[in-house]
Amino acid sequence: MVSDNNGADYRSDKHVQERLIDAAEGLFCEHGFDGTSVRDIAAAAGCNIASVSYYFGGKEKLYMEVWQRRILAVRDNQIISIEKVMSAKGSPSLEELLKSFAEAFIGSLVDETKSGRLTKLMTREMLDRHLPPNMFVDDMINPTLGVMQKALAVICPKLQASQVPLVVFSIIGQLIHAVRVKTMFEQSDRPNLPIFDLAEMVDHIIKFSAAGIRACASETK
Asked: Rounded to an integer, what distance in angstroms lies between the CA atom of residue 116 and that of residue 191?
């Protein structure tokens, strides 16, 4: 054990930080940024109220840390999924690439271990913004688009680079909407709603998007 002269275990610092981030994430999801106090976070984490300032410099930076952890996890999963398809033997199909990307992205939205926290955080942030404007662009969007652009250049060489962001944002928009509809249907008590199968919907989005991408790639200008 690494300790100072007072016997403090430095390895416990990481554990305390994770407890604070987990507690803050849950509270931000349920009550929003303004509805969550530092005292609430510390109490939920079982920590001293001063620990938020000590480890994160305040509630604002802790909020950013919550998002940073989520963003990096989603980004890394997406990039890994793309690279896995592209490194497989044989020639990957467009459907295989889109399926891998879609499953990695949607998995982060419906993660049962966190009760759909990412979706809740996204909704809260869209309604009441507190993050730096370039955080998503720098940490998630640009890195993911760069890897996807290289993959699509191999699979669909006629697709223009300028169309790649439109393709990716279209797919992401469809996936987010599918998750929201699924949640809405599950919470409704109306018996006449159609059965909503998320996996079936994802397959539809993949086929629909693949057809659209091929149409865009075949256009002559």
From this structure: 24
3 forms bridges with which residues in the sheet?
A: 9
pTM of the model: 0.78
| DSSP E strand boundaries for 59-153 | none
**Amino acid (one-letter) located at 173:** G
Return the exposure string of 130-143: e unless at least 16 CB atoms fall within 10 Å of the residue's CB, then b.
eeeeeeeeebbbeb
- Convert 105-174 into a string of H (helix), E (strand) and C (coil): HHHHHCCHHHCCHHHHHHHHHHHCCCCCCCHHHHHHHHHHHHHHHHHHHHHCCCCCHHHHHHHHHHHHHH
Q: What distance in Å separates the CA atoms of residue 172 and residue 11, rounded to the nearest whole number?
A: 38
Distance CA 204, CA 93 (A): 16
Distance CA 99, CA 96 (A): 5
Residues 6+ apart with CB under 8 A from 140: 71, 72, 74, 75
State the Rg of the chain over Cα: 21
> Residue 182 has which token pair?
């699924």
Cβ pair 24, 41 in contact under 8 A: yes
Taking the C-alpha atoms of residue 34 and residue 46, their distance in angstroms, rounded to an integer, is: 21
Task: Write the pLDDT tens digit of every residue in 145-174.
Answer: 999 999 999 999 999 999 999 999 999 999
Query: Is 80 within 8 Å of 104 (Cβ atoms)?
Result: yes
